[in-house]
Amino acid sequence: MRWYPRGYGGTRRDPDRVKQDGWHDHGLLAVSIDDPRLTWPEQELVRQLGEKLYGPRVEPREIAHG
Predict the structure, then answer these.
(1) How far is CA 65 from the centre of its chain?
(2) Are 50 and 57 within 8 A, CB to CB?
(3) What is the pTM of this model?
(4) % of the chain beyond a pLDDT of 90
(5) Per-residue pLDDT for 60 more than 80?
């Protein structure tokens, strides 16, 4: 038997379960704009909330090589 420090080892929760527990336990919401479960108006609401709270997203730019 291998010994693990407290909090390590065992089975891991899937990411959606972690998000669900965060919502139920702490009132935190983690959602992706690209989540296929959201309609376009819901995605737009998420985008607007994110921009209001944290500012506009930084779009990845193309890097010129050579």
Answers:
(1) 32
(2) yes
(3) 0.67
(4) 65
(5) no
